[in-house]
Amino acid sequence: MTNSSRSTIAELRGPVPLSHQLLRTFVRDGDTVVDATCGNGHDTLLLAGLVGDRGHVWGFDIQLQAVNETWRRLAEAELSDRVTLLQVGHEELARHVTGPVQVVLFNLGYCPGGDRSIITRPATTVIALEQALDLLAPGGTVMVTVYPGHDGGAQEQAGVENWVAQLEPHNCHSWRMGQTNVSAAAPYLFLVQKAL
Ligand SMILES: C[S@@+](CC[C@H](N)C(=O)[O-])C[C@H]1O[C@@H](n2cnc3c(N)ncnc32)[C@H](O)[C@@H]1O
Fold it and tell me: How much distance in Å is there from the Cα of 154 to the middle of ligand 1?
């Protein structure tokens, strides 16, 4: 392998780049997908590119600043026509989105560069995860990056761990993906695929 072909390989520096690699595999032209936590819009932008002009992305965030920043990023890339952004909590997912959807992405915790006291909370996260699973097409995937390290992060980790532990193995394939050579407080990824 040459150095130039190596340069096309993504550096898997944590769960978010890993989730992006997986999204590139799972999301197809024409799909409907959900970004349940838009934040600064990096994930929404990737999804908007992957669904193509026949697909659609639904984005949720409770912060106006996050919705505005995501919108700015999409407009700059000329991809806003295929995205609906809502300043609404993801616990309202099922009131706005009609399935089937291919992917629902959760990137939990606080918005980098924003107010660190505004975080996702286990009670609403678990409600949203349940709705996300219902909305998935067979073979569709819920992806969740969990951040145990910040204030409130351990409680949310416990809530998500409990939720994935009770999933019926006949109905979905549930994975935990984390780095082995990092602290126990480092973020990691859950993947829940609805069975075919
Ligand atoms: C880690 S950030 C998301 C990062 C983002 N996906 C990106 O690419 O930049 C987490 C976001 O979740 C949002 N959030 C908190 N509670 C929420 C809720 N109930 N529903 C939707 N978003 C929520 C926060 O406002 C914050 O922007």
Answer: 17
